Amino acid sequence: MEPAVEKLLRDAGFYSIKDILVRGPADVSEATGLKMDESMEICNKARVILEEIGLIDKSFVTATSIYEKRAKGYRISTGSKNFDDLLGGGVETRALTEVYGEFGTGKTQLCHTLCVMVQQPMQSGGLDGKALYIDTENTFRPERIASIARARLVDPARALDGIIVAKAYNSAHQELIAEQTGPVIEQNRIKLVIVDSAVAHYRAEFLGRATLSERQQRLNKFMHMLVRLADAYDVAVVLTNQIQSTPDGYGDSAKPTGGNVVAHTSTYRLLLKRSSGKNRIARIVDSPYHAERETLFSLSEKGVSDALA
User: Which helix (H) or strand (E) holds 218?
Assistant: First the structure.
C-alpha cells in the first residue's frame, strides 16, 4: 500500500488492517474520499493479509478445517450451569448472541454477570479478558457489577477496572462507537462486547413507515459491523433487544424489534421470560445447531445463577 494511502486511512480513523476489514469498502470510501473500486481493492488486500497470517479464515476452506477451529473455540459462562448447558457451554466467541424479552426478565442482569465472568480464568468459566459495554439506554450500573463480584468472591475494584463503558447518545453516536471499537479491543484485551440495547435508538429516532427503509439500512450496517468485529477480533458479542406486541391473533404476540435485519445477523436468539419468584426461563429460539429448547435460571446477588428450587 502506498504511503500516501496509508496516511489517508490513518487520518480517516483506520488504525489497523482489521479495522479496514471490519468497517468495509463503503466506510473506507466515505471516510477517505477514495472511489469505491479503490476502497474495495484496499479491503481485499486487507483480507488477504489477514488470511495469510491466519487471523481470519481463507475464502475457501474444508468443512474439517472449520470443525477443528470451532472445537478450539472459547465460551464465557453465564453464571448458571443450566444456562451454560443450554448454550453448549456458555456464550460463544466469534458469534452474535441476541437476548430479548420483556422488562424485568434479566437481559441487563445477564449482561452485567457476563462482564464479571469474562474476567475469570478459563477454569472458572471466563476468558481472562475484559469487557466493553456499549450502553444505549443508561442501564449500566457499576454498583451492580460490584455486588455481583462480591457475591462471587471477586475483588469489586478489579471487576470494575476490567470493564470499559461507552455511552451512546443516539444512533449516529452508536455507529461511531462501533467504528472505533477495533483499536479498543486490541489495546485492552477485550473478549466480550455488550450492546444494551441494539435497536432502541433506531426505534426512537425513525418513526413511522416513511423512515422504515432508512432505519433498516442503518441498522443493517451496524449489525454487520458487529458480525465482522466478532469474527476478526475473536470476541463474543451480546446484544439485548426489546419486544413489540403484535396482537393480530397469529403466531407469537411478542416479537423482537429490528425485523429481519436483526434476525438474520444474530447467530443465536434467546428469549427470556418470567417464571415463579426470582426464577426465569431462557429459551433458544434460533441457533445454527441447537434445537429449540429452554431451561430455568435465577436472578440473585450473583447476577445470573442456577434456578431456585
Answer: helix 212-233
Distance CA 272, CA 107 (A): 7
Q: Which of 13, 22, 68, 72 is nearest to 47 (CA)?
A: 22
Count of domains forming the chain: 2
Query: What's the pLDDT score for residue 156?
Result: 98
- Could you report the per-residue pLDDT of 214-260, keeping only the tens digit for each? 999 999 999 999 999 999 999 999 999 999 876 555 555 678 999 99
Q: What is the pLDDT of residue 90?
A: 97
Residue 247, pLDDT score? 59
Same domain (yes/no): 176, 245: yes
- Give pLDDT < 50 ranges for the chain: none
> Which of 142, 147, 154, 140 lies closest to 108 in space, CA to CA?
140
pLDDT of residue 268: 97
Residue 263 in contact with residue 286, Cβ under 8 Å?
A: yes
CATH code (residue 59): 1.10.150
Tell me the whole-structure pTM to 2 decimals: 0.90
Are 280 and 273 spatial neighbours (Cβ–Cβ below 8 Å)? yes
Q: What pLDDT, on a 0 to 100 scale, did the predictor assign at position 254?
A: 72
Q: Which residues contact 127 (CB under 8 A, 6 or more apart)?
A: 74, 76, 93, 118, 191, 192
**Pair 61, 81 in one domain:** no
Same domain, 236 and 116: yes
Distance CA 99, CA 83 (A): 13
Do residue 230 and residue 279 come from a single domain? yes
Q: Which domain holds residue 39?
A: 3-67
- Whole-angstrom distance, CA of residue 159 vs CA of residue 173: 26
Say yes or no: 58 and 124 in one domain. no
Q: Euclidean distance between the first and final Cα of the chain, in Å?
A: 62
Are 139 and 271 contained in the same domain? yes
Q: What is the pLDDT of residue 4?
A: 84
